Amino acid sequence: MNIKLIAIGKTDNKNLIALIADYSKRLGFYIKFEFEVIPDLKKVKTYRKPNKKIRKESLF
């Protein structure tokens, strides 16, 4: 079983960072656990949109 926890925005709270590290360590003994932080879009100066073009396909 894999668990991936995704958080929006980075925290500066040292206590919360320590708790997340402890939680990750404890879960690591039982299952594969991954913690990922994605940037908050309000604070990101440059945001790249994917260059993939979406095809519109007919359903009929």
UniProtKB/TrEMBL annotation:
Give GO terms: molecular function aspect only: methyltransferase activity
User: Keywords of this protein's UniProt record, alphabetized?
Assistant: Methyltransferase, Transferase
Q: Name one GO biological process term.
A: methylation
Coiled coil, from the record: none
For this entry, the protein name equals LSU methyltransferase RlmH
> What is this organism's lineage?
Bacteria, Pseudomonadati, Bacteroidota, Flavobacteriia, Flavobacteriales
